[in-house]
Amino acid sequence: MILQALASYYRRLSEEAGAEVAPEGFEKKEIPFVIVLDRSGHFIGLDDTREGEGKKKLARVFTVPKGIKKTSGIAANVLWDTPAYIVGRPKPDPKKETVKLLERAQEQFQCFQDTIRATFSDNEQDEAIAAVLNFLGKRDFEQLFSHTAWKEIEEKGMNISFRLDTDTCLICQRPGIVAQLIGNTQRVEGGDTHRVCLVSGEPDEPTRLHTAIKGVWGAQTSGANIVSFNLDAFRSYGKEQGLNAPVGGRAEFAYTTALNSMLVKGSKQRMQVGDASTVFWAEKKNDLEDVFADIFGEPSKENPEQATKAIRILYEAPKAGAPPLTEDYTPFFVLGLAPNAARIAVRFWHAGTVGETARHILQHFEDCKMVHGPKQPGFLSLFRLLVSTALQGKSENIPPNLAGEFMKAILAGTPYPKTLLAAVLRRCRAEREITYPRAALLKAVLARAARFYRQSEQEVGMALDTGNSNIGYRLGRLFATLEKIQEEASPGINATIRDRFYGAASSTPVAAFPHLMKLKNHHLAKLDNRGRAVNLEKVIGEIMDGIVDFPTHLSLQDQGRFAVGYYHQRQAFFIKNETN
């Protein structure tokens, strides 16, 4: 299902006007430097295609023949590669002997020439191919090696290609050469090597080694695979590598090209969810593709209303007379990929419609609605919610499985993972702080669970609810009121009862509240404003009405309601002060 959807997306890109996707047998590749030759194969110069300054220099992306999957053996790309293949100069490696590196580089250099001759055996007289072979055959590279940029090229093993001085495109992009390469990639139907492709269902020659997927955060920089069989334990019935899951060459090229195009740096169709690099696409061009990353992403400082505008699009028709996104039946897909050694693990997968996905996203933001300060955002980003569950508020400490399960629940409209409630409460107890994102998460988890499982328990609202009789919620309100009394009795106090008693009060109320109720009397006696003391006593009386005994312990759900009740009551105090 995943590979089929990706292959379909490649077909959509190849048919769309203006879509820059590589044709079959080619790929998009950064080529930092281009060797310029004349028609006789003499060196003219070295073009630097990079833009920017310092470490932020970005190389230009060219459409080049699809690269060979590099293993421990020697295999050259067609008309582009690293200095070891282009001119026989290896990348320095202090862990290896220089002599052996040079010997291997000479073998790679010879392989590069042999690959060109084998690929263009019928096109040997083409002036561009002849120029490259003449340049390589003379082995006169002194002008190239004396170039100021060569040292950096060799040390970093940068990609290099060729161009004729009279052309504006690379040699591998010349129309005649492109036609020759496309002809070489065409496969003859039938034959002993053909199998039924698991993706397309059509006869095709299975791909032995699939193209590496690059751009997944945390994976190998050289790329990793979704489909691979590199150990005997992964093989069946004596089949080797790709034959264990026969994916035809056309389907393999389509799904890897589509996925790499979405994962490329700067792509608007990718976002990070915990440790999962997440891509998303629709079967047809759709407005949800344009705003999906903005909805869940952290808004930039230059455009703080970015997420709000994106969410508003979900409510409104994209243009006059068009139906809203919530009624759009176009298939929509979301794929989360996480690193797993030399492979890529599928963290989550969502296949639905645009309308279904939009409705579930809107429900998520409705569930997370929470009263907040005037300077805080109305909609919390996915990143802001997740880091509130992490140690020290750092993204690298977000539990990986939690992030994936959370995103899956949002897209599918199912209850949030139970581990989410425990993770938020753990951070509340450890840091003794109930922040806006944590309160919003707790309220969302409790409200969605009550609605989904049709529980008789009253749902937690977005603001103070004096009619909520749940013992956990009421005790949270009581704890916030007792803390407020202490703060007003001792202005500027460094540590409040929250710093000392929050853990006990939220889990075993009977061990903390009797003592706190005694302390309350001492704090009220310190208040100079007796009217204020009476008002606070009335709040306590309203909360305590009907509570006979403090419970010995609170369940995990009631501990969540305790935190929300505390947050609601604190916000109510601030709002009243601002109103006054």
From TrEMBL:
It holds the Pfam family Cas_Csd1. InterPro entries: CRISPR-assoc_prot_Csd1-typ. This is CRISPR-associated protein, Csd1 family. It comes from Desulfobulbus propionicus (strain ATCC 33891 / DSM 2032 / VKM B-1956 / 1pr3). The lineage of its organism: Bacteria, Pseudomonadati, Thermodesulfobacteriota, Desulfobulbia, Desulfobulbales.
